[in-house]
Write a structure and sequence with these properties.
Radius of gyration: 25 Å
Helix content: 25-40%
Number of domains: 2
Distance between the termini: 70 Å
CATH class of the largest domain: Mainly Beta
Largest sheet: 7 strands, antiparallel
Number of strands: 10
Order of helices and strands: HHHHHHHEHEEHHEEEHEEEEHHHH
Shape: elongated
Strand content: 5-15%
CATH topology of the largest domain: Jelly Rolls
CATH superfamily of the largest domain: q2cbj1_9rhob like domain
Amino acid sequence: MKSTPIKSYLNLTKIINYYLEWLHENNLNNFSEEKKLLKSDLVKVVLGLIWIKKDLTDVKHFQANRYFMDAIGINKLPTIEMFEIFSAKNELKNLPILKENIGINNYENIKNIALIVLDKFNSNLNIILAPETQWGPEKKKYFEDHGYVVIPDVMTSLECSGFREIALNIAQDEKEKKVGFFYGHENKFQRVWNLVNKSLELGQLLTLPIVHQIMNDLFDRDTFHEKYLLSSFHLNILPPEGREQKFHLDSTVPDPLPSWLIKANTSFIIEDHNEDNGALMCLPGSHKFNRKPSPSDEKKYNKNLIKLIAPKGSMIIWSGHLWHKSGNNKTTKERTGLLGAFVASHLAEVAMEENHTLVVDSERSKFFSDDLKRILMFDHGVKQGALAKSNHFWAKKKNN
């Protein structure tokens, strides 16, 4: 099965927890010593290293890695000598869960267990890499060359209709309550911010496996920390006969822009974006200019702009460096778009549009998935004991 590897501490925690549940589900009552061994810190470390594609010689490099230890739920890494002694033994040879894949020693047997669990973990969570018609080397290269790419068949037509109805109901509610955000020509364009706090169903779009796969790929770097976060998730409504925007880009740093990706924008196409209803217009390849467009650029490159035509159910992704604007909606109907802006996790301060820790209701966030909480930074910096309250907060110093 083509499945996603373990490339982050978050997923490492998930698979360790899944492994412990898997052990419980497999009846090993007649193998009490083996079961005890399989739950040990030593085995957790071996499994953890295998899942992140490290070997036992890498243990010494993890001696001070608190993140790795926290991810697998241990307080101290065993020594190399302990691993060598453990690996040479063959205490798991009788386990029925290994069936035909019995190794010559503990280490080989645990490698086989690691593969079994990884396969079941991915199948259980339905984490399967998208077919190359949606995302693969060819699609990624197109994005790198042009600054945008259209991903087909992300949502069904029925799902899109439901999402559009939810989004427009929220927008209408804000309009009637006079709390809506309006902008643009004659203040007729509407933007609904903080959708994660306004619709659980819409928020789930942000953690679709295809979105997770693409963003991890685009923001990939040599770290097991999270690669990306959510900058904002909002609805944009172009009014009937709404005018096109001005040329701009979405990477909010001074010129010259860095060559690497700061933001990647995603538009979930819940109704056709066509030639007439204000489809996004962009200058292909402009993400490589590494600078912001000037007023003269708009005149200079106007004939080179293209419209990102995309059918209902697809998804458009474009670089935060790409020069773009909303097109002119020539129709007599409003045109909607659900926009999720993602940012490289190490650049959150300069690229976050919404502070979700402030604008998301704490009661509603209880219903969020772990993946959604991750890209909202809800658990970032929450260490053991950090939330404990102290009676000494108001204590005054005693006089000597």
